[in-house]
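quick one before i forget lol
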Amino acid sequence: MEPVITTEPIIVAIDHGYGNIKTPTFIFPACVTPCEQGMPLTTDDVLSYEGKRYAIGAGHKEFRQEKIVDEDYYILTLAAIGRELHHRHLSQAEIVIAAGLPLTWAARQREQFQAYLSQNAHVEFRYLDTDFQVEIREVVVYHQGLAAVAHRLRQFRGTNKLVDIGNGTMNVLNINERRPVPESCFTEKFGTYQCILSAREMLQRQFSALPTDEQVEKYLRTLRADIGEKYQQVIQDAAKRYVAGIFHRLREHEYDPELMRLWVTGGGCCLVRNFGEYDPGRVILLNDIHANARGYEAMAKATLEGRRKSDAPKG
């Protein structure tokens, strides 16, 4: 790819999930594995940075509330930047990173996360058979979950509860008459990976079977998997129990389907759709897995445009 240099900063929006990294265009597993010397890997899934090589997207990253405790999410950020720039046929660019944090963690972790993602103003790395040179101009951090619906808040008339179910966490926020209620938000470690772990534990206990995370996840998403029917039934039972647990936790936080509408976004949306018992007239499923990343991008564009207008000469 011939190098292309941009004159305006490129917004690269990244949803740093515990299970997957999402950009407006791409999704890949949030896993980083240092490559051993001589390890046979295809170049497409290897990122080279500061003399080290990393396999991107193989395996599952352990849940940690703080994403800045190691370099993994920084390497994953570079991979996300590389994919987005490669998609735009760019190898050199000034960028603004638009990211997010769970609602209840944003105030406490925002500055640390911004510093972590902007630790190097100039970054050079190789990925997708391309050498990238990137200038990170700024990092902006928004509220995860709320960003996914920011463009449609006019639809949130009356009393509403928004739940963003990711791989690691479940984030909940009340939105009343199109206005978020910050004091209502809460975050629980009850993401979809808890369902996968439960299903695997039940299969091991009942049949001494050890399916992979990928096998269980595929069935949860598609209701299809190349495994025995009795195994599928166990996964289905675990999923129904997990989704019932979601609604139980919501009721503990004053969810009443007769009084409010429930909006569900994030990767857990498909589990609610496939295994939940709910009134489709009162529960709205937002199935776009890229919704948070696209929301970050739109909000960053609005932020930068607002600055340009305020900085413009008056008169």
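fyi The chain has two domains: 10-143, 155-192+220-287.
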